Amino acid sequence: MVSDRRIFLHRLKNLTANKIWLWQWLPAIVWLIISTETLFLWKALADQDLNTKQRLVQFAAASVKQEIDTQMRNRFQALERMRERWTSRGGTPKLEWEKDAQNYLRGYPGFQAIEWIDSEFYVRWIVPLAGNEAAQNLNLAFEPRRKAALEAARQKRTITVTRTINLVQGGKGFLVYVPIFLHENSSEETLGVQQESFEGFILSVFRLQTLLDTLLDENVAPGYALAIYDGSEEIYRRSSSENSKQMETQWAQEAEIHFEGVTWKLRVWPTNELLVTKKSRLPSFVLGGGLMMALLGALVIYLAQTAQRRTQQVEIINKKLTREIFERQKTSSALREKESTLRNFFNSSPLMMGIVELINEDILHIAANEATAQFFGVTPEAMKNQLASSLGASPAQVKRWVQHYHESQKTGSPVYFEYIHRADNSNRCLLATVCPIAQNPRIRTRFSYIVEDITVRKQAESILQKTKKELETLVAERTAALTRVNKSLEWELEERRQAEANIRELERRWRTLLENVRLVVVGLNCHGQVEYANPFCLELTQYVKEEVLSKNWFNTFVPKSQLQQAYQDFKEILAEQFRPHYQYSIVTKSGAEKIIDWNSTLLRTPQGEVSGTMSIGLDITERYAIEKIKGEFISIASHEMRTPLTSIHGVIQLLEADRLGSLSPKGKEMLKIANRNTNRLIFLLNDVLDLERMESQRHHLEKQCCHSAELIKQSIETVSYMAQEHQVVIETNSNSVELLVDPDRILQTLTNLISNAIKFSTAGDIIWVTAQKQNKEVLFSVVDQGRGIPTDQLESIFERFHQVDASDARKKGGTGLGLAICRSIVEQHGGKIWVESIFGQGSSFYFNLPIEVADLEKDEAIGKSSKNDLP
Predict the structure, then answer these.
(1) Mean pLDDT of all residues in the chain?
(2) Is the pTM of this model over 0.90?
């Protein structure tokens, strides 16, 4: 701190070297700056305190307004309830009416009186009567102004509130008219009917002073004075101080109170007592503290100037002492650093190093590093002051070492020698270097030694010698062989050059094809990034090549609604578990969606590893739109044809039953043909409607817990008559799996598959219908021995109106929609359907369904436990 202050004062002095007067007046300048900033801060805090008080007054005015508005609405609603009772009952008995009025007078203070005025404007009932006897049976229409007010209230048919008036009983108040009508008027009623339905008024008299004293008690805006004006007339004031007018002028906040066409102006201001309690002491503290800090700052600057002059004399002496101490510390630090470096090198060196003395023809260890200690299996401390013979060295080794040490002592230079160290399991070849370094006070020479393990080097030298001889022999043999092989290599190189030329030509042709074909061609790496896109792909998506390459295909081009399925298909392709044909949309740069029919294949490296995919897609957007229009047309046409077709079918049945007269045998035969074709057409329309309803997702699955064996049994029973006609045997297994499905739809699927198998089977064939559990799915299969399906139609057979042979529709019957309906039902259940077939040997139809029973039982268990937890 002393050093920092000295530097600051030194810089400040240099800055003002040419302005001595500024240096002398610096304490006064500091005092003036701090005092000015203190005054600004005090003014800001005072303004903030003033704004806080004004916001409190605004909040109090809003609270008073809310209280008056709420209380007056409650009283008006009480009068409304009296009117509603009157109108709902066609009048209220006097005693009951007076009882209600008394209850409201007690429940809502501020009522002066509640009266009933009949349709002729006579005051008939008054509560309380005491003090209001003069108004009993008084006709209020005697005064034109009051009559006009009553007529206006009757015409408005709503609550009417008067302006402030002088009450007969004394004081100021206001009146509330509530007109009573027994029936609402319609547009057809006459004026006479309206007068007959008018039952008079419920009139309430409010005394302002009593009402507002009740509403604005001590709990409403405590500490605030207030005044209420009706127009320019003051109708109420709550004030407890003599200088209330002055406070009102300075602090008053206004608000307007609206009810039933009347507007009061509210003024609210604080009292002196409230302002005292809300006054903040912070501005005063800031002002006093700031002025004190200004004085202390000036004093500190003055004392610092005095100290600076005195410290300049001491600094000259200190500089000399500091320089001398620094040089000594620098020398000492260099010595310590050098010693530490040498010690670290000694201890961390991988070579065995140490210091020894010769004593009695033996070697005494004075110091040894970690490498030496580890070699002997001890610690450096344990080797200290130990003889070589006591560490396990043989007498012959010690004698030889001592000879080398004496030689080094005699010559005064290092001596190098090798020796073999025999361990338990192996022999190590070591290279030692010994050198005299110093003499101790007893005139005994000390030596340093460095030992390097050269076992590996010796072994490598031996291996190199052996390898050299082997290489010389091998080179001679290979030279002769290469001479023979050289000619054959020339032929192979020529063939390879020709093959490379063929490959380049083939690549050129394929690239030309990809660049010009009107199909989408996209190459992706294993991470889904675009590595190739042909010109048609760029044209279709409206991108340029630089915008597409290295971009993630799925995040850039696939709609979010199809992203998960498209990415799953991509993963299946990489895992070699893919279908060769699939479909999803892409998004162009302009945001338009294009539906693409894809075929993909794997790309591999020369080593056979998967490097990505190459996909070729056909834009079927227009075809998809046409298919959609076709589906809608089929749906509409089917609906429109069903009604007349049903009528035709009914007439044919009546004719067959001779209800409309008898027919000739030929006529009956023709009727049977017509009935059969009509039934076929009805089945076709029903299939079309079912398929359209399922594909448009308007059909809701009603899932139930079922058993696979029961579903198979019911489907076999359904087609048993058909099987008997075709002399076909249906067999099934006895296994049963519990699952959650729509039983009617799965039964329809099984029935369609089994009936198809029967149609295309010959007499004596066997059809197998089975169901078995596979992980979390149930696999259903229908296997027949029929004529089979060609390979090129295995995918398209599930499309609408598709049949393997067009003549089947006439020979075998059917609409060509059965398998399309089966696929829609299975996919709605979250499963898949497919077929495997060898043409001429039969077909096997499979579909799998997820098992959801366990999840259902879990949900039911949770539901039961949650019910048990209810109080």
Answers:
(1) 79
(2) no
